[in-house]
Design a protein that fits this description.
By secondary structure, the protein is an alpha/beta fold. The chain contains eight helices and seven strands. Strands 3-2-1-4-5-6-7 form a seven-stranded parallel sheet, with helices on both faces. The termini are far apart.
Amino acid sequence: MIQKTWELTGKKALITGATRGIGRAILDIFLELGSDVFLIARNPQDIRHLTDELAGKYSVEGMAADVTVPGERKALVSMLEEKWGRLDILVNNVGMNIRKKAMEYSEEEIRQIMDTNLYSAFSLAREAHPLMKRSGRASLVNISSVAGLAHIRTGVVYGMTKAAMVQMTRNLAVEWATHGIRVNAVAPWYIDTPLARQVLKNMDYLQEVLKRTPMKRIGKPEEVAAAVAFLCMPAASYITGQTLAVDGGFSIYGF
């Protein structure tokens, strides 16, 4: 009985942006824990390569889609309704950033970041709501950031979207609790991914990051993935509306 609360066997999960970085780590741990996973990303070659790599060993399928496009979100959810008839887990992982000063952003860049990081996550959650409600014990996890909890020099628009995602998590947790849907968020600090490495290759900045991180190291994608998996397990069945910082202590550091 205890073991069943710490697994995802038979759970039907949708993960966005699952071909690399944190998304790929989430995919791997979900599969290892017994979940059936459908993944989406923009690049069809990445999807094809990944599903071919994992075929035969795990229950995983995918399709190329842009979650910022309403028609593609609807097509995705329609496919899952026909395929599974329910959705137990949705992980909103897709995100992007453009690092600039507040006055340097164009209107197009602001819309792009807002649409990708926030509006697409909210819209996909709404599209998938009937399938999650049908599950009866569904879990929605939003990948936010410590940029939504504190200023980290990564750009005001990115921070705005991640802060809004935290509040979206709280509101949906309350509104959807009676529908059997738990809603939580995970807020990573710098994680060892290709995107983060582009920033942290500046050794002076890396030393600043490490100085402000009590554990004195960069996080690993699998450490974020483990937090996401836990929030989706029966073991976390009384946890909703929370944002779990996976940050080596950065968000609580003080003098």
